Amino acid sequence: MDTLPDNVKRMFYEVLNGDMTIRDFEQLIYDSDKYENALGAGLYLDLISFNYDQKDALTQLKEIIRPFIDSNEFNVWRIKSLLIDIIEDRIDLVVATHKLRDLYYSTGESIIPISLGVGYESELDEVPIPSEYHLWDKNGLSEKLKKVELYRPDIIREAKELLEKLNLISPR
Q: Nearest-CA neighbor of 60 among 75, 71, 49, 70?
């Protein structure tokens, strides 16, 4: 199969990255015959006939999709998406540092600078994420969150620098 159209790549990337539910993916495939030409008859048939209700459906779906994407391109897309979320304040900064760490290691420590990849995450490892806020007293939480604000400008600056560098290599 030749290169997939950008809209199909994005859909595949979103499923692989956990940004799109398997149900939303299934609905897109069923609702639109426009994907038949974009995917090719074989892959389209595999996706239309796939059992989205099976126990390990997401794992199985990922196995079908992976051969059709370039893993390096996917990794750059994931990093750029996360950087944009950081810059536009659409993600908690502590959660973002955990995701950056995971991406840093999963991409072979070659794309993300070490400061963004593990440096900030290690500095903020004692700061709770939003789902843990209820476990903290108000004053203790406030003190912990001050540390995030201390690092925020540097993280955003480095995120912008890396995003600019990645955009020069491969536009989004």
A: 49
